[in-house]
């Protein structure tokens, strides 16, 4: 144990949550989280360059905090970043050029902004999109066959399939897909040496954001002048209380849909593929019983948990599992830990394609439940439904690599050897 500047005792196990490299080491991360769930489920963390926070590692506590969105607010600290990055984000917003996505907002503004894109992810819209997603799934499984017998499943397949789906939904040209992928990597992978732009400084991170805004500002002007019946047009022409969305909110809406809309699904797809390779009995079980695909997809999402955390700030003094939390203090919702909680999941470290119930928190909970959850499920279902009957054999062809991150991430490389019809 160590003591922070305010006299609170810090649990060394909790320090991994403020260490991006821990998320690239499953064994180290889960050992620490298992320790915290058992002995210190609401743990104080004071680990510069991050500002202090309370680490919440039990599923029930995460759910309770997500449920009480009037007490626990997204603003001003919706995710874990360094104090310098927090300060820069605040300054940029005050200057009218920062990022303020749905994850940054609280009700009632959050509810109004969310509504602008919500219809595009409802069941009716998903049914209309199903044929296109199935076509793309076949295209990418065919690509996998054609480039075999080896590939990097992440960079060759898992990245492009969901990127193509979300860009098509937005109505963006295929010529821009590569640029969008690179910008997303740089934004979410800023802690990983492979993805950092130049030196990965705050100025470099700001440059990534400005690139996004420049691209989407042009898109907004185009769609306002000539709407084209796509999601980009809906966002560009969205209104709140009869007034157009602000420039910041419009650009931010595009950013969260375009980036999170494909990167998180990429992580779930590649994490699911690795889980099937590591658990050949479960792969065979799924091959023999395709009716298990819906539960298998949920298990892949639980297993990979692409969004590692969100944060909330207490609006008033409160307690969580008997621990006093003062107004203004932040809590870190450790979704990775919640999805391995022994009190919720039988044998949580066993990958089970038939797991039911599966009350994972990978999509969040409550008012901030992931807007694109249905789309992610459909994409994964389509891809694996197309792939598994055609997959005659598959094994690792090298060492899988996870990205260093404290927010969104998963496998960045998954070299595999396979036989595919």
From TrEMBL:
| Gene Ontology biological process terms from the UniProt entry | cholesterol catabolic process
Gene Ontology terms, MF aspect: cholest-4-en-3-one 26-monooxygenase activity; heme binding; iron ion binding; steroid hydroxylase activity
Q: Tell me the route in metabolism or biology where this protein functions.
A: Steroid metabolism; cholesterol degradation
Keyword annotations for this protein, in alphabetical order, are: Cholesterol metabolism, Heme, Iron, Lipid degradation, Lipid metabolism, Metal-binding, Monooxygenase, Oxidoreductase, Steroid metabolism, Sterol metabolism
Coiled-coil annotated spans:
none
The cofactors named for this UniProt entry are: heme
Q: Which PANTHER family does its entry note?
A: BIOTIN BIOSYNTHESIS CYTOCHROME P450 (PTHR46696:SF4), P450, PUTATIVE (EUROFUNG)-RELATED (PTHR46696)
| Family (UniProt) | Belongs to the cytochrome P450 family.
Name of this chain's protein:
Steroid C26-monooxygenase
